[in-house]
Design goal:
The chain is mostly helical. It has seven helices and two strands. The mean pLDDT is about 85.
């Protein structure tokens, strides 16, 4: 913060309250007053472009308002909401691919619906990691020669020899 501000800097233990806006956060007039206030405060602190972080519904309204009023402000989606939306996008892209069927082997039908939408975050991460591990195991079994030197049919792929595998481990 000291690199982007000028003048007197308060010590790390100083906490200052800013005015509270006693309004419903989903009301657009709340955002219409909050965003210009943040821009004005940033100008007083010599911060060129302020950054406001919020959850998804408020972020959508903040982006619309900032664009409509040409405010010099960056609206960021909160980290957790960003991750939830990313997991939801995986569910949307992979919809109909059989991912739901694989996840139903470990989770119930309603839970899989929440996983694919990104709402059941911890279960979604765990489920996607299980699917990733299973797919990686199947992929590696195609290219790595097992310890007993049994030939595993791998179609048109050439298997990795033990020497090549030890070089990979060394790297």
């Amino acid at each position: 913060m000291q690199h982007v501000t000028s003048g007197q800097h308060s010590s790390a233990a100083v906490v200052q309250m800013v005015p509270l806006i006693d309004m419903n956060p989903t009301d657009e007039t709340c955002m219409h007053s909050t965003l210009p206030f943040a821009v004005d405060q940033a100008k007083q602190l010599n911060i060129p472009t302020p950054c406001v972080t919020s959850d998804l519904p408020l972020w959508l309204k903040a982006v619309d308002i900032a664009n409509a009023e040409h405010l010099d402000i960056v609206c960021c989606l909160g980290g957790f909401h960003l991750l939830m939306n990313f997991l939801g996008s995986i569910g949307t892209v992979m919809g109909g691919s059989g991912l739901e069927d694989v996840l139903r082997l470990n989770y119930g039908r309603d839970t899989v619906t929440h996983i694919m939408s990104g709402k059941a975050y911890s279960r979604a991460v765990r489920g996607h990691m299980l699917v990733d591990g299973a797919l990686m195991h199947n992929l590696m079994s195609l290219v790595i020669v097992d310890d007993n030197n049994n030939d595993i049919p791998c179609g048109e792929y050439q298997q990795i020899t033990v020497d090549e595998l030890s070089e990979i481990h060394a790297v």
